[in-house]
Automatic annotation (TrEMBL):
<dbReference type="InterPro" id="IPR035985">
    <property type="entry name" value="Ubiquitin-activating_enz"/>
</dbReference>
<dbReference type="InterPro" id="IPR000594">
    <property type="entry name" value="ThiF_NAD_FAD-bd"/>
</dbReference>
<dbReference type="GO" id="GO:0008641">
    <property type="term" value="F:ubiquitin-like modifier activating enzyme activity"/>
</dbReference>
<dbReference type="Pfam" id="PF00899">
    <property type="entry name" value="ThiF"/>
</dbReference>
<protein>
    <submittedName>
        <fullName>ThiF family protein</fullName>
    </submittedName>
</protein>
<feature type="domain" description="THIF-type NAD/FAD binding fold">
    <location>
        <begin position="3"/>
        <end position="150"/>
    </location>
</feature>
Amino acid sequence: MNYHFYIVGVGGTGSLLARDMPKLLIGSNCEMTLIDGDIVEGKNMKRQSYQTQDIGENKAIALSKKINTFYGTNCYAIDRYITESDFFEVIQKESRIPVIVGCVDNDATRKVCEKVVKRLKQCIYIDSANSEYSGDIYICVKSNKEIKGALRGKTYKLKKDKHPNELSCQEQASKGNVQFLITNNKMACVLLEHIHLLLINQLKVGVTNVERLKTVHY
């Protein structure tokens, strides 16, 4: 199958996923797009896939350039925070099966992704979220307008937080940086495993819980 992976958010978890995912795509006809409106800052060096020379550059652009240089993968960048209309429009132009991989830290963007999933006839949605020590991943498949698996918004009520486009510069700067490097790495590793299963036609829909020293899928 030919997939186009859209990694929404390339911060703590998303940048680690994007760094290693091209290795799974070598020799395939799959492509990937990184989506983020954030700028690389010095504080990102500890737990994200950036170097000091990237400071001041958009995260999606900085990381996509590295990926294309190292692997020759077709990796594209969208250097803005997505809205429902522009994300849907971007995906609609693609002939490959869309795989949306959410790695964001706000429910406003998750709502955008879920609305896009509901509008698409066919897609795969893998949504990751984590706190300081634990997290979970929701996996669903939509085919012929039928959704199999779990949508986070169907499990519990998503918060009415601000979309990144609505945050002031001061609010952006004050966002917490609570996730530990180990937790982000674990989440990225489990996401890689799910993507590998997708590529070999063994994807498991449902929810994966990731805790300290423990990973359970149900």
